[in-house]
Amino acid sequence: MPLLVMKFGGTSVATVDRIARASKRVAREVANGYDVIVVVSAMAGKTNELVGWVEETSPLYDAREYDAVVASGEIVTAGLMALRLQEMDIPARSWQGWQVPVKTTSAHSTARIEEIGTDAINQKFKEGFKVAVVAGFQGISPEGRVTTLGRGGSDTTAVAFAAAFGAERCDIYTDVDGVYTTDPRIEDKARKLDKIAFEEMLELASLGAKVLQTRSVELAMRYKVKLRVLSSFEEYDPNAGTLVCDEEEIVEQNAVSGVAYSRDEAKMTLISVADRPGIASAIFTPLSEAGVNVDMIVQNISEEGRTDMTFSCPTNQVKRAEEALSKAKDAGAINYREVVCDTDVAKVSVVGIGMRSHAGIAAKMFSVLAREGINIKVITTSEIKISVLIDRKYMELAVQSLHDAFELHKA
Amino acid sequence: MPLLVMKFGGTSVATVDRIARASKRVAREVANGYDVIVVVSAMAGKTNELVGWVEETSPLYDAREYDAVVASGEIVTAGLMALRLQEMDIPARSWQGWQVPVKTTSAHSTARIEEIGTDAINQKFKEGFKVAVVAGFQGISPEGRVTTLGRGGSDTTAVAFAAAFGAERCDIYTDVDGVYTTDPRIEDKARKLDKIAFEEMLELASLGAKVLQTRSVELAMRYKVKLRVLSSFEEYDPNAGTLVCDEEEIVEQNAVSGVAYSRDEAKMTLISVADRPGIASAIFTPLSEAGVNVDMIVQNISEEGRTDMTFSCPTNQVKRAEEALSKAKDAGAINYREVVCDTDVAKVSVVGIGMRSHAGIAAKMFSVLAREGINIKVITTSEIKISVLIDRKYMELAVQSLHDAFELHKA
After folding, report:
1. What percent of chain B has pLDDT over 70?
2. A196, A406, B374, B409: least buried by Cβ within 10 Å?
3. What is the band of B42 on the pLDDT scale with cuts at 50, 70, 90?
4. What is the pLDDT of residues A399-411, one digit of tens each?
5. Domain total in chain A
6. Taking the CA atoms of chain B, what radius of gyration do you get in angstroms?
7. B83 interaction partners in chain A (CB closer than 8 Å)
């Protein structure tokens, strides 16, 4: 029997009525001849309520207890959906993380799935069950404690199940109808993509297009799981949404697939650093140890043995970064005159696997921004992405100009 | 290290603040030198919310899914209380039913505890943990599904843990400050009892004094677990509440300890039943099979080979009883002219282990009721209880008169 994984996010299961609507979609796939593994999130708002209680009870909470409390939300949805499916005469049962089992690392609140047991659920499919409703976001540690996979973790649960059970496809039902060329709230000519390559989705996800948890895309890419992102609020359409797939399955490929942005960036510059071999390591090792996610890095041309080192990181990590640098300076590990911090910046990126075969994308991007009078502060590039740091006030203008210049509104 | 079990009901853990207050009580017992097993209910209202969603989703729900959903409420409270205790520097962790494990029968929603694993929790106590916070009301079936023990089941969880771990005492914190000689809402001279025997508590619990789940009292009696019922809303007092204990520990004993009542009773009479050996069995076997809880039974004197058979049962089981009787009649198993049903009745009982050594309690009870002009419809007696069925409109009068006549307001 072919198998499908269907994942429903919090807004898609926010009420008993919405759970009934989602169950209808599951029933349709069962009627189409599939066995189905459904992965559910907590009802919208529930996880926040639980997190609120935890933080009120213990500001510096024990992550093991946090996980035990917060994972309860998905248990409720899984049971309710199993009940709803039974009510529609579809043999179904719910599964909690420890029952499957979903074995994870012990890194509470950010655990990684290590293994998914397939025997118990496959046995039920053999006995005639058509649907396994799995509580997403959770697993069990080697110590037998409940773990969670981090915010958005149910996406990762879904992809991991699709990989473990060899599913034909993994459908992620959410409150948007697919992946867009850019944020439609900024550019109203943004166009929904029918297909997008894993690599591109990964860049978009990590650049702040919060459709899928980054980890779930990585996992899908590694195990070649066909992912589809689609809305649970639209009429049934077998070709709905956006397919995230191997680039070989994408025939027509624009040079650029999308324009992404991130508001949450800060630029930090260490002025007058002694330029010697190993200096980059001496700067970025303590930052990494302090948990600072350094993104872009630029080193100026060295003059008289001294240089300026610039990097970007999320705005809320600036304080932590400053402390780590100051500590390293006090310990004599690094030497600089001062740290200059600019939190009024934003990152704008163009992404596309087509860049590999199209020359001149960077040049075009820079000339578009220059024409609009937007100064570029930092540049980084990868094989399929070019990112620039600019003043935040120009962010929307940059996104719109680039979307237009690369003709992303055209299919 | 001496061990205490402390159980907190839903109103005692209704909010984060109340969980903090309950945690202070736990901390005090830890300071007194105890290791503590805390058993918690769901936050007040949460279980009803979950049950509501289940019934809305599937009116004839699968009890296995019901259990999975409803048991999640206790998981939340257990985690939050463990966090709160940690915040007070008390080494604590939460335990879900399957983690302990609390092994139960497969009778979902009314499961019985068969075995409690003590190794894992004892190991933690050895490692220096002071408190194990256990999610009440739940267990795990032989099939590995989550089970629940029925409404009020956390009381039973608490007593079962006290028995399994050999606790010095099991304190049940609730929203009343103990067990009273009768319902203070009916008789304002009702007096709190310092001690009450297991047998008496059992009669009171099953007669509708809803302080403790009946099953928990049975279990406490069998395993000689000292139970204390006390309020979580009053100042700390080591002698607070009511101790439910072996009768040998009760020195001064009145003939009558309390007056109980139950509004929820119906009287059914089968008119003109053929009086032959085996007729009682022929009537009550089908009723039992239909799930009717028959309480009192009276058979009239037989005349010309025919008799009237009267019994009482809960009001909401009358329809089920009528159907079972009619089916048995149609099948030729029994024969009667008609069934007369009276749903305007109530049961009033006097309870006391002192009855065993005091003669004339029944006679006194009947004369008190006669003096008030209250007609007795059915009588049953046990070694420590006399119950009468009367018109419901006289119920409060009967309770007050009996409380007064047996001088229950005096210690």
Report:
1. 99
2. B409
3. very high
4. 999 999 999 998 7
5. 2
6. 23
7. 54, 57-58, 61-62, 65-66, 69
Residue A35: CATH number of its domain? 3.40.1160.10
Residue range A320-333: mean pLDDT, rounded: 93
Alpha-carbon distance A134 to nearest alpha carbon in chain B (angstroms): 12
Distance from CA of A71 to the nearest CA of B (A): 9
Q: Which residue of A has its CA nearest to B144?
A: A99
Which among B58, B76, B86 is the nearest to A62, CB-wise? B86
Question: Closest to B98 (Cβ–Cβ): which among A58, A87, A98?
Answer: A98
Structure confidence at residue A209 as a pLDDT band (50, 70, 90):
low
- Looking at the fold, whether A32 and A164 belong to one and the same domain comes out as yes
Structure tokens at B238: 């080591």
Strand, coil or helix: B216: helix
Question: Structure pTM?
Answer: 0.85
Tell if the CB–CB gap between A72 and B75 is shorter than 8 Å: yes
Give the pLDDT score at B49: 96
Distance from the B298 Cα atom to the nearest Cα atom in chain A, whole angstroms: 44
Beta-carbon separation of B19 and A82 below 8 A: no
Q: Find the closest chain A residue to B57 by CA distance.
A: A84
Domain of A339, CATH number, reads: 3.30.2130.10
Distance from the first to the final alpha carbon of chain B: 36
Name the band, by pLDDT with cuts 50, 70 and 90, for residue A1: confident
Output the six-digit token pair for A91.
């043999």
Q: What is the tens place of the pLDDT at every residue in B323-382? A: 999 999 999 889 999 999 999 999 999 999 988 888 889 999 999 999 999 999 989 888
A146/B20 Cβ within 8 A? no
Task: Enumerate residues 6+ apart whose C-beta is below 8 A from B309.
Answer: B269, B270, B273, B279, B280, B283, B297, B298, B299, B300, B336
Residues of B in contact with A94 (CB under 8 A): 65, 68
Place of tokens 């509004």: B263
Decide if B73 is inside a domain: yes
Å from A43 to nearest chain B CA?
Answer: 12
User: Which pLDDT does position B209 carry in this prediction?
Assistant: 61
Nearest to B56 by CA among A94, A129, A173, A79: A79
- Cis amide bond preceding B91, omega within 30: no
Give B-chain residues touching A99 at CB under 8 angstroms: 144-145
Burial of B231 (0-12, 13-18, 19+ CB in 10 A): middle
Residue type, A122: N
For residue B145, name the pLDDT band (cuts at 50, 70, 90): very high
User: In the listed set A129, A153, A175, which residue is the last one of a domain according to the structure?
Assistant: A175
Residue B66 lies in a domain: yes
Give the domain extent around B84: 3-175
Question: Would you give the DSSP letter of residue B2?
Answer: -
Determine the pLDDT at residue A235: 81
